[in-house]
Write a structure and sequence with these properties.
about 170 residues, rod-shaped, two-stranded antiparallel ribbon, mainly alpha, 4 helices
């Protein structure tokens, strides 16, 4: 290779480098602007997603508070109704034997076995005799208690159904 060819190649390389630097200089601002726009778009997307998540959380909290308040009011009303009915049963019941000792013993077995707690021993013969039967008042009070527990359980289940059901603008399902 002669020296003139080497100079041509070197000149060609310098020209190529200058063309590359020139094109970089011309396009660098364009691509930096594109990158800056992508970063801005991404930041805006993240901010919008965070705002949507905060709004969703706030709505869920408000809905939960509304449903919890409604449930508390329902439970309070049920307890108040139970107290009124209990007073009425106490007023109307006369203390008649309703269930004999054998039946009371059978009915009491599952509750003591399930809880793992043995029945407390009676302190006197009258108390032992009283524990051997259930009066009309005992049965009435038990029915009131069971009904109250059922109604509260039902209200709690309905609140869960409302929570997991379709959301409406009022915060309840349906």
């Amino acid at each position: 290779m002669n020296p003139i060819d080497k100079i041509k190649q070197a000149a060609y390389a310098v020209v190529m480098i200058l063309i590359g630097l020139g094109s970089w200089w011309i396009t660098a601002d364009h691509y930096q602007a594109k990158i800056a726009k992508m970063k801005t778009t991404q930041a805006e997307g993240v901010a919008a997603a965070e705002k949507a998540a905060r709004n969703s959380l706030e709505l869920a909290k408000q809905r939960g508070d509304t449903l919890s308040e409604k449930l508390a009011e329902t439970e309070s009303a049920l307890n108040h109704k139970t107290l009124e009915v209990s007073r009425e049963v106490s007023r109307l019941a006369v203390g008649r034997r309703c269930l004999d000792s054998n039946l009371v013993g059978v009915l009491n077995q599952p509750s003591t076995a399930a809880s793992g707690v043995a029945a407390a021993p009676s302190s006197s013969p009258q108390a032992a005799d009283a524990a051997n039967f259930a009066s009309d008042q005992d049965v009435g009070q038990w029915i009131i208690f069971a009904n109250n527990q059922y109604e509260i359980c039902s209200a709690r289940l309905n609140a869960l159904i409302d929570w997991f059901g379709p959301k409406t603008s009022t915060g309840s399902s349906k």
